[in-house]
Structure formats: C-alpha cells, structure tokens
Amino acid sequence: MQDKEDERVLALIEEFLAARAARKPSPHTLQAYRRDLVAVAGLVAEAAPLPLATLPISALTTRALRTAFATFATPRAPASVYRAWSTWNNFFTFLVADGVVAGNPMSAVDRPSAPVPLPKPLRGEDTPERLLTAVARDDRRQRHPWPERDVAVLALALCAGLRLSELLALRVGSFTGRPRERRVEVAGKGGRPRVVPVEPELDAVLERYLDSRRRRFGAHTVRTDSALLVDRHGEPLRRGGLQYLVESCYRRAGITDRVPRGAQLHALRHTFATRLAEDGATASEIMWLLGHASLATSQNYIDVTAGQQRAAVRANRTNRALGTLLGGAQAPADEA
What we know:
Pfam families: Phage_integrase. By secondary structure, the protein is mostly helical.
C-alpha cells in the first residue's frame, strides 16, 4: 500500500478537481484551477529536480512552495498570483480534510493583497441604447438573422446583470411570478443562488423571443425545463457560441471601440451595475443583485461612479471659465 507522503501530486490534483466539479463551476474555472496547480507544481519539480509525473506530495514543503511562488510571481500580475495562491490554499485544505497531509503550509507563503477589479462598463452614455436599437433591426445581411433572440441575450445582461455562465444555465422555467412581479432565479457563481426582479420591459422582450422560437422550432421546444437560450438550430447555446453572438452584436452596432478590452459580455453586466450606482443604489443592493461575494466589489462601482461624477463636474465649461476669471487660483478648502 502506498504511503500518503508518496502519493503523486498530479493524481491528487485530479482528485481535487473532481471534487470541485461537484460544485458545478464553469469549465473555464476548472481549467484555471488546473493551470495554476500544475504550473507551481512544475516549478517545485524543476527545483527538486524530479519529473513532475513522479513528484510526491512530501516534496511540497513550505520552503519549496515559497521558492516556487516567488518564481511564479515574477512575470505575472498580482491578480494572477493571488488567484494561484487561493487555488493552492483550497487544494491543501482539501488534502488536510482528506487526511493526506497534516497541515496547510500556504499561510507561510506570501501573496499579494486581494485585488478589487475596476468596473469595465461600455463607454459612452448612449451606447447601451444604441446597441439594443441596432440589434433589434432585422439585418438581412446576416446569414441567419434572429433579432428577437439577440436582443433577449443583451437585455438579460444589461437589465439583470447576468454573467455568461448564469445565462447559459437559465431555463425557460427560471422566470416566475405574476405580471409586474416577475423575477428570475439565477444559479450564481460559487453555487450562490439569487433572485433578480424582472421589469415589464424585459419580460416583454423575453416573451417576444420565446414566441419567435415557437414559430421556428415548435411549441414543444419551449418546455419549462428547456434551456432558455438556443442557437439557430434550436440547440442550447454554448460558451463559445454566446461569446461570438455578443461580439457580433457589437460589430453590427458599430461600437467595438466602446467595449473595454477583455470585457466583452462582462461589459454589459458592468454597465448594469454602474447604472445602478449612478441611480443611487447602495452597495448592499448592488451586491445582492449581482451576486457578489464581497461588499468591497460592490462598493467599487459606487466609488468609481463618484470619481466619474467629479471628473464630469471638473470638465464643466463654467468651472473652467471661473478658473480663468480667478487667474487659476483655487478656492480655500473650507469655503463652500
């Protein structure tokens, strides 16, 4: 029988990922877990030196992990290093619970502070409306136009703040409640469910989409347990297909220059949150509606919005004229 200290790291990583899969994370998240675990384990094996395939768990000492993380961190952004540290911390927590190791060494391995990502909403005050208007038109230049479906996808992100994985998990029966009291039940990140109110306008967009779907594929394709979002063949949309759909909507609306780099569909969710903050929503309200795990993430939208408001006031032409009148002098800080 193999001693626990000789158990192979790669095999234990696969056990950990299999256990995590029960929580239904996105495939992208599981790939990120594997990538971070294998990358750091590979650095430990290289320093040992041992083949990664035969690296035993006993080789993952505190000293070895410190050295590996120092090397891992050198070319990477703090957010990437923090994510890897968190993944390894969860991995060792799993191993301790399983009796493979006696303790978790990650508390002795330095890590950057947890980053609070800056919001990346669509740029331009009229951009969401311009996007929806353009996509709602039946563009015959498209090979397979389906404006009702495309508007529904954009509206769910812009008016309910749903993530890509949450959109893909929606069923027709996820929407419940009487007219004007409609809501959508969302399977949130990390297994955290939430309920988001659905206003009559969004409800009407979804009904129009489902009616168009019945005409295309028949009423039997719109059962309550059916996937809400489907492709042009009536099959459930997948991650790549949904991403491509949103990108094509940006191109059709001519707003690709207004989409923050790397945001894509998430820019729609960030636009929803930013507009909530602009219209006076509290951090706790934003946290609940978007399914944030941390209040700090929600507060970030309010802080950024306040900064944008001050920048807008500073750019006011009357303020500039006043500055010219005063010869560039600033008013005392205690005078209002």
